[in-house]
Specification:
alpha+beta; binds zinc ion; 6 helices; four-stranded mixed beta sheet
């Protein structure tokens, strides 16, 4: 037990140079942490950290990166509200819960993009929604319909 805690500290210590601290605006998120186990172009959040294979891609000076952080911040806040362990268990084991959480995360992300003048392609969003692992409870038609509904006209 003691050894595994030490190992964890060492691993986090090693990962730190590949990550960066987030400022107050992103609370309850505190850091973006390098994790090569996360798929390219994806992020995973366990409050207060966001893990990704390329931390530089999440620097919030880019609108797309900030939008993704808004999505991850939403998960982080929900984890605190729900209880982190309960949230993680529900996310892993309950596809309906996972789907609801992700669509809510994507909602704030897509609204943020549009608030900052960035358009998105609903087909790209649908594609991404269908490539979650573990899967969301969505078929392609529903995902496209949902993403189109998020677009402001
Ligand atoms: Zn998400």
């Amino acid at each position: 037990m003691r050894w595994s805690s030490l190992l964890l500290v060492l691993l986090v210590g090693c990962a730190a140079p590949g990550g960066f601290a987030l400022d107050e605006r992103w609370r309850p998120l505190e850091r973006v942490v390098l994790d090569r186990g996360v798929r390219d172009g994806w992020a995973q959040t366990l409050v207060p950290n966001v893990y990704c294979a390329d931390p530089a891609s999440l620097r919030p000076n880019h609108v797309a990166a900030a939008a993704l952080l808004v999505h991850e911040r939403f998960h982080a806040q929900r984890q605190l509200d729900f209880g982190v362990t309960a949230w993680v268990n529900a996310y892993r084991n309950d596809a309906a819960f996972r789907t609801t959480e992700e669509l809510a995360g994507w909602h704030v992300q897509l609204q943020y993009l549009q608030d900052h003048g960035v358009e998105f392609d609903p087909l790209d969003v649908a594609e991404k929604l269908l490539s979650y692992d573990p899967k969301l409870q969505l078929d392609y038609t529903t995902a496209v319909f949902w993403a189109r509904h998020e677009q402001r006209r």
